UniProtKB/TrEMBL annotation:
The keyword Calcium does not apply. The chain crosses the membrane at residues 28-49, 61-80, 111-133, 139-161, 181-200, 232-254, 266-299, 311-332. Its main location: membrane. This is Sugar ABC transporter permease YjfF. InterPro entries: ABC_transp_permease.
């Protein structure tokens, strides 16, 4: 006599295999959902406009969202530990205007760029120290970093500073073309950051420690894992990514501006969550965050094709965010029951 989960030969049915796979890989569900949404958006846009899925549009998708992708990678590290970083948009503005100011004063790019990255790392270090050693909630600590970075941006300059350095402008103006496809150095940099993020989180001890802290920080500490160093370092990484995003945005716009990045931290957090990273930490993937950024970029492009107000982008992303938070809640509840 057979059971409902096995065939007469004793082998699991397709349904049983699917149930087993999903029970073991439930953390992949939100990322799979984001991939499905991305495909539906692309197909729907192609059917609606007829010329949406073209090499030019898809190449521009990476070009226009390279800075957001870099921010999302840094935020993924932080959110995987159960933290949050609200300062990334302001750090991007501060490092961008700092770079523009240093270049305008005659400093070579080879010196200005490391200094802007150090500025982002310093703010990330400050937030990490507040979170771990002073037990300040990540929301409050990163909010302080947000105000600090934005204030420093206005200290550097109250107005836009044009960038004329050929090395920085080369990052955006250079086109590596293959047929109708093209790629810029800023896009290559964003993809390189994604690749490094995937490698660190999936194949290094540091990455395993990040997941362990997000899963249960107390257990990670009892296992002898370097909790303090890891928690501080993820905020430093987020700060460095903010600096790199500042460089990319400065190259993209050709100028530094102290009001750049207002609200961008929320876009980056939304992309990370849509990509499947749990806000409670311990589950998520860098590649999922990239999918989340692409979903955001496609929605923004579709709104532009329709000629509608860009405020609809916020509305649609907000709706998707609510859906994914519900999915995340379901995953957490299911995991708790299995324990």
């Amino acid at each position: 006599m057979t059971t409902t989960t096995q065939t007469e030969a004793g082998r699991p049915t397709l349904g049983a295999r699917y149930a087993t796979f999903m029970s073991r890989h439930s953390s992949l569900m939100p990322t799979f959902a984001a991939i499905v949404i991305l495909i539906v958006l692309l197909v729907g846009a192609q059917l609606a406009f007829g010329n949406f899925i073209t090499p030019r549009n898809l190449s521009a998708l990476l070009l226009n969202n390279a800075y957001l992708l870099i921010l999302a990678v840094g935020l993924t590290f932080v959110i995987l530990t159960g933290g949050i970083d609200l300062s990334v948009g302001s750090v991007m503005a501060f490092t961008g205007i700092l770079c523009a100011k240093l270049l305008a004063e005659g400093l070579p790019a080879i010196v200005a760029i490391p200094l802007m990255l150090l500025g982002g790392a310093a703010i990330g270090l400050l937030i990490g120290v507040l979170v771990h050693y002073f037990d300040v909630q990540p929301f409050i600590a990163s909010l302080a970093g947000l105000f600090l970075a934005r204030g420093l941006a206005f200290v550097v300059s109250l107005s836009s500073i044009r960038v004329e350095d050929p090395a920085v402008l080369w990052l955006q103006r250079t086109r590596l073309t293959v047929g109708d496809w093209y790629l810029t150095p800023t896009g290559i940099l964003a993809l390189l950051i994604v690749a490094i993020g995937v490698f660190i989180t999936q194949w290094t001890r540091f990455g395993r420690t990040i997941y362990a802290i997000g899963g249960n920080e107390q257990s990670a500490r009892l296992m002898g894992l370097p909790v303090a160093r890891t928690k501080i370092l993820v905020y430093v990484i987020s700060g460095v990514c903010g600096g790199l995003a500042g460089l990319v945005l400065t190259a993209y716009s050709g100028a530094g501006y102290p009001l750049n990045g207002v609200g961008t931290e929320l876009d980056a957090i939304a992309a990370v969550v849509i990509g499947g990273t749990l806000l409670t930490g311990g589950s998520g993937y860098v590649i999922g965050s990239m999918i989340g950024v692409l979903v955001y970029g496609v929605i923004k492009t579709v709104i532009a094709f329709m000629g509608a107000e860009q405020s609809w982008t916020r509305i649609i992303i907000g709706g998707l965010l609510l859906v994914f938070i519900v999915v995340q809640r379901f995953i957490v509840t299911r995991s708790d029951r299995r324990r």
